[in-house]
Amino acid sequence: MIDLENVSKSYDKGQPAVSHATLHVDKGEFVFVVGSSGSGKSTLIKLLLKELDATAGTIVVNGQKLNTMKRRQIAKYRRKLGVVFQDFRLLKDRNVYENVAFAQRVIGRPTRVIRKRVPEVLTEVGLAEKYKSPVTELSGGEQQRVAIARALVNRPDILLADEPTGNLDPQTALEIMKLLEEINDRGTTVLVVTHNKDVVNKLKKRVLTMRKGAIISDEQEGGYHYEA
Ligand SMILES: Nc1ncnc2c1ncn2[C@@H]1O[C@H](COP(=O)(O)OP(=O)(O)OP(=O)(O)O)[C@@H](O)[C@H]1O
């Protein structure tokens, strides 16, 4: 599902942000990516989204080789990936329903499909009853649920989350990570970048640890143990 072979990414002359990373993630896996600030986690996500190109090595996602992907194929490729960020990135002047429906409208889904799919996905994230609420009236945890619903609305194969609980209190953070776990249980491959030590130690998933761009450990049922 995700294959990196000896991947490096340098921004400039300095040390590479990602360095000789080799990684294989199977369909249906749940993977945490941890490591101190600047260790290359967000760069890894950007490489997977093809927002950045690797300077060396090969990346294959969903059977598609990113190195040689044509510019015109990128939008279609990204539709099969859901993405969630720390700062939610919602449309602040729209309600919950509109925030999720928007992702379907931009790809030209018919209105009748949108009317069926949006309530479905809002139910999956536990927000069905708040569909009319302006997003500015929601708690941080609820806003992240909207962002997760938007990420899932096109039924992606892979969900990428970059620090999804960074703005949330510990209890809400745990609830959001449990939601990601449920989404994974329903078959979506999930990769989560996080600094949330407690959650990583509690959920006992596969844990990749990065340091200075390199993947320095890869453990099944792993824990959060690196020196900052
Ligand atoms: N656009 C950029 N131009 C130049 N250097 C960059 C750029 N983005 C990131 N870097 C550098 O690449 C390295 C890895 O950064 P990256 O954002 O991937 O780390 P991170 O592990 O996600 O950090 P954090 O936990 O703070 O988000 C850092 O040294 C950073 O300064």
From TrEMBL:
In this chain the ABC transporter domain maps to 2-228
Keyword tags: ATP-binding, Cell cycle, Cell division, Cell membrane, Membrane, Nucleotide-binding
**PROSITE patterns linked to this entry:** ABC_TRANSPORTER_1 (PS00211), ABC_TRANSPORTER_2 (PS50893)
Q: Name one Pfam family in it.
A: ABC_tran
The membrane topology term of the UniProt record is: Peripheral membrane protein
Major location (coarse): membrane
RNA-binding as a keyword of this entry, yes or no, is: no
Q: Which GO terms describe its biological process?
A: cell division
Subcellular location, record wording:
Cell membrane
Question: GO terms for CC?
Answer: plasma membrane
Q: Which GO terms describe its molecular function?
A: ATP binding; ATP hydrolysis activity; transmembrane transporter activity
Record keyword Ribosomal protein present: no
Q: Which domain of life is it from?
A: Bacteria
Functional note: Part of the ABC transporter FtsEX involved in cellular division.
Q: Which family does it belong to?
A: Belongs to the ABC transporter superfamily.
Binding partners and assembly: Homodimer. Forms a membrane-associated complex with FtsX.
Name the record gives this protein: Cell division ATP-binding protein FtsE
